[in-house]
Design a protein that fits this description.
This protein has 323 residues and is mostly beta strands. The protein has one domain. The chain contains no helices and 18 strands. The chain is globular and about 60 Å long.
Length: 323
Amino acid sequence: MFGSLGNFDVINDTNQVCHGFEIELEGVSPADIAYTFGSPYNRYLDPVKVATASGTGTIVRYASAFGGSTWAVGTPFQDPNNPIITGGHQLYFGGDPNYLKQPGDHFGVALNGNPTNTVYRWLFGDASGNLTPAGTNAKIPAPIWNVQPPANPAAPAAVQVVVPALPKENPGDLFGEAMWVKVFVTEAAEPAELHHLLVGNPAVPDGKDPAEVEIEWQILQIGKGGGLDEVDSGLKDLAANAKSVTRRYEFYKYTGPYDVDGEALQENPGPNLEFVGAFLGGQNAALNLDAFVVPEPGTLALLGIGLAGMAGYRGGRRKVAAV
C-alpha cells in the first residue's frame, strides 16, 4: 500500500459561473481516501465522497448549498482576455486575499492507493438546485503510478508513472487535442506532503538543475501513436534511501500546424519556441512508499494528494507566447 499525492488550483474556463467541482477517481473506493482539502479553506467547504454507479471508483464532489431559489456560493468564470496568474496554491481562504472574486478554486484529495483514471470537471447549477457537469472536462492530464519490486534488492521499489493524453472530445475524431509537455523529477529521503508540492518549494523539481529534466519537450496527443499519446517515465529503481519521488509536469498549448485529420505535425518546439503557446497547467505529483496516516485536523490544510493542475499560471523560467 502506498500514497500518491499532489495539489491544484484550477481555473473556471467554462464561460459560466459554476456551483461545484468534482474529481472522479477510477479504481479507488471511498475508504481509500485518507483526507480531502475543504473546510474552512474552500468556498464549498468539505466535499462528499460517493461510489460511482459502477462501484469501481469514487467521486469527490464539492458543491454549493442551495436555498430553494439561489445558490449560496459560486466560482466566477475567467475572462479569456484577462487571465489570472496563480502559483498553484493560492485560491483558498488564507491564500489569495481576493479569493472569492477569483475565477478558480483549490482542491485536493489524499489517496491510499492509485487511481487508474482521473477526471476533473466543473459543475453547473440550475434554477432548481440541480448540478450537472460542464460540457468538457478540465484539461489537465493526471498521472497513473505503477509500483513494482525493484531490480536491485537494495532499492526500496521500482516506480513508473504514465500520463495519458486527453481523450478525444468527439468520438468520431481521429486525433484529440495536442499539447506540449515537459517533465522534471526528483527523489527524497522523506515522505512528500501537500505543502511540499508548491511552485518554488525546493521539493518540487523546477528544471534549474539539468539532472532534474526527464523530458525536455514532447507532444501529447491521443491518436498520434508511436508513444506520443502518453508520457511514460519508464520503470526505474528508486535510490536506496528514497521514501518519495516527485514529478512536475508542465503543459503548454500547441500552436503548430495540423494536417487535415487533426494530427499535430510539429514535433519540435522550434528554436525560438514559436510553436509553444500559453502555459495550460502544471501537475505536481508525488508518490510516497508508505500509506498515509490520517492527520490531525490542524494539519489538513498542509496536506493533499493525487493531482496537481494549475490553469492560468505561467512559469517564470522562460517566456512563451500567450494566446
